[in-house]
Write a structure and sequence with these properties.
heterodimer; A: alpha/beta; Rossmann fold; 5-stranded parallel beta sheet; 10 helices; globular
Chain lengths: 270, 432
């Protein structure tokens, strides 16, 4: 990805920036994606990694110039921790789909209450459990690094530019703009569900390159027209449940269907 | 007065766990692992979904085991629908699974385990003093990642591994490059076994049953479950032998076999299928001599990296001359049930699904390696603490921190994957 950069002051001091990696509920795959970068140790050596629980024994809860936060927020305890991280951090990056908009963990919000009750093991946990959401439900996020998982290239690009005091500009427009099948072999033309028209681009349409239609893991753009998409898929004969699963796998959305998604607020449990 | 040791948030493991140990009168009364990772309800998420959503969703159970969760889901669905895949698909999947194992082992061994033995907090601090070791680490990690990227599209959450085969066959040119790349790290992988063979492991001798899948291929067999000192279990019967249960206050489940703990993972695999390996005999002997020490799992993983690279090259040499650009096998969903068992980096992984005639999932039960190892991990911790309290003077302040470090080393040897163990919601449910 070419870095279009806009200048933003982050740190003009000579000391190495203090960086933290934090994880809430999720698969930790975005942290692993970071660790799977070939030159990861060179990158991390340019900063002071003061908190990275996954790979560090001694973690310091101090002030951070840059905090990467992975995972969805699924309990009241997690909200408290999240806010404490925000208070200590100058710049917060939501790392991956779960932190950006709830990701796969947020699918549990669709489980009916009685079903959920069956699956929660103690009353204490039931009380603490809330609907799963992205972190920006509770704190201000300075950069959304999208995708399930994030793209390695975007991470490297972001990180290197951050060290120079620049914040990279994110790809604008939907996945379609980078789609190899654009205009010649479009899934929608073949009545196959592809969500690329709604999804934030910047992934190089990596799934479509492998002949898999877009699954909306980067979340929908603001201009997405859900009602139109839902109607289109219905006209092909897909039922409500199937459509709902396809559209809401990585984010809670109000689809305007009869099973509306509940509001993303902590809910009181009996 | 009873003494307690608490590890409140164990570092350098996948996921969030704490440990509570109670010692009374020189006896270890309690060693309980508590998992406080958020509840994840995975089986609840799978229920009611159409079959083609299952691999995508199960992959997200765990970032470092995503490859094997995808393969297991795909295989279980194929069994349910009687889909027979091509030989090429099987070979590509075996290669993919090896890639997943190598990337996971390399990260675990060099980033999570080695710093403990060299007295560093993390690999980042270790890098400047142990350049050579870190060079090994990065090269082997890269090799595993490259396999997964080339076969399935990216490092984690594979894209092209689907029901019936592969949505896109990897380019021949890239597979040829992969052979070269793997060839170039083969000797390095062999040397790294020596590094792990020479670590100063604590003495540990607690008899434990080991289970692994056994069949024609070391990395991709699903014939039978074999134990080191009992008979074999048929894969179809796994649920009646291995019981999962919830622990109050824990979001994870624990599995036992007939009420007793057991171990799965690299160590059991090497012990059970050593005849299929190419590793110098002295390392295998070292493992066998210390078979009752879970620390040997670390050495076994380093052996598997080397074996994985050798086997990958073999597969690629077989694949490349005959590579066909085939599409996934066509099929229609039928009502039925499918079980898949596969050796994941951390041990045997089971996926079991039932489907109605529309191909909607009506039942899901996933049993992960860490679920199976948790009970054994607790037994081992008890044993270890018992040994340590008799050799360490509790009046000295350093005693507690030494014991804590030793416990953490032991836990890390198992390479627990907490995300995987918290995927679960309830023991079993079925909807008619």
């Amino acid at each position: 990805m070419v870095a279009k950069t806009k200048s933003k002051k982050t740190s003009s001091k000579k000391r190495k920036p203090s960086v933290g990696f934090f994880a809430f509920t999720g698969c930790e795959g975005c942290q692993f994606t970071v660790l799977f970068i070939d030159e990861i140790l060179d990158l991390l050596n340019k900063v002071n990694v003061n908190y990275f629980h996954l790979i560090k024994e001694k973690n310091r809860n101090i002030k951070f110039d840059l905090a990467f936060i992975e995972g969805a927020i699924t309990s009241k305890r997690e909200i408290k921790k999240l806010k404490a991280i925000r208070d200590k951090s100058k710049f917060v990056v939501a790392l991956g789909a779960c932190a950006c908009h709830g990701g796969i963990p947020a699918m549990r919000n669709f489980l009916k209450d009685e079903e959920l009750g069956k699956y929660v093991y103690t009353q204490h946990m039931l009380k603490d459990s809330i609907e799963a959401t992205g972190i920006d439900q509770y704190i201000t996020v300075d950069y959304h690094m999208r995708g399930c998982p994030i793209s390695k290239d975007e991470f490297i690009d972001f990180f290197q530019n951050f060290l120079k005091g620049k914040i990279i500009e994110q790809f604008k427009g939907p996945v379609c703009l980078q789609c190899p099948k654009r205009g010649k072999d479009c899934y929608l033309a073949k009545k196959e569900v592809c969500l690329g028209a709604m999804a934030h681009g910047g992934c190089n349409a990596i799934c479509i390159q492998k002949n898999i239609p877009c699954v909306l893991c980067r979340g929908p753009t603001k201009s997405s027209n859900f009602a139109a998409e839902v109607n289109l898929f219905k006209s092909w004969g897909l039922d409500d449940d199937e459509i709902k699963t396809k559209l809401t796998k990585f984010k809670n959305l109000d689809l305007g269907t009869k099973q509306n998604v509940k509001q993303q607020t902590p809910k009181k449990k009996k | 007065m009873p003494r307690t040791i608490n590890l409140n948030h164990i570092t350098k493991i996948e996921g969030h766990a704490r440990l509570h140990v109670v010692i009374d009168n020189g006896q270890v009364k309690k060693a309980k692992l508590k998992i406080f990772e958020g509840s994840r309800f995975f089986e609840g998420l799978l229920k009611g979904k159409k079959f083609d959503e299952l691999p995508t969703i199960s992959s997200r159970i765990c970032g470092v085991c995503s490859v094997v969760h995808t393969i297991a889901a795909v295989k279980a669905i194929e069994t349910a629908f009687n889909v027979k895949v091509s030989k090429q698909t099987d070979l590509l999947r075996e290669l993919l699974n090896i890639g997943g194992t190598v990337q996971s082992h390399a990260l675990h061994l060099f980033f999570l385990v080695l710093p403990d033995y060299f007295g560093f907090s993390s690999a980042i601090e270790m890098a400047s003093e142990h350049k050579n070791l870190i060079r090994y680490a990065l090269a082997l990690k890269k090799a595993g990642n490259r396999i997964v990227q080339i076969v399935a599209g990216r490092d984690i959450h594979p894209i092209s591994c689907v029901v019936g085969g592969f949505s896109r066959i990897p380019d021949k040119k890239r597979l040829k490059e992969l052979i070269k790349e793997l060839d170039s790290v083969k000797s390095l992988a062999k040397k790294s076994i020596k590094v792990f063979a020479e670590l100063d492991y604590p003495h540990f001798d607690l008899i434990t049953p080991h289970f692994a899948l056994r069949g024609k291929s070391y990395f991709y067999s699903d014939d039978i479950i074999k134990c080191t000192f009992e008979g074999c279990v048929n894969i179809q019967d796994y649920e009646s032998h291995f019981h999962e249960h919830f622990r109050r206050g824990s979001t994870a489940e624990f599995a036992t076999k007939e009420g007793k703990s057991y171990m799965v993972g690299a160590l059991p695999r090497v012990l059970i299928s050593k005849d299929q390996l190419h590793t110098p005999a002295k390392y295998i002997k070292q493992l066998e001599k210390n078979r009752n020490s879970p620390y040997m799992n670390v050495l076994a993983q380093s052996i598997e990296i080397y074996e994985g690279i050798i086997r990958s090259i073999e597969i690629l040499e077989k694949l490349i001359p005959r590579l066909k650009s085939e599409s996934p096998v066509k099929f229609t969903p039928v009502e039925g049930e499918g079980i898949a068992a596969i050796e994941a980096p951390r041990g045997i992984l089971f996926h079991r699904y039932k489907f109605n005639k529309e191909g909607i999932c009506t039942y899901a039960n996933l049993t992960t390696p860490t679920t199976q190892n948790l009970a054994n991990m607790e037994d081992s911790i008890k044993f270890l603490v018992h040994e340590l309290i008799n050799t360490c003077d509790p009046k000295k302040q350093r005693c507690d921190s030494e014991i804590k470090l030793e416990i953490e080393k032991l836990i890390r040897a198992y390479d627990p994957c907490i995300s995987c163990s918290t995927h679960f919601l309830e023991l079993k449910w079925e909807e008619k």
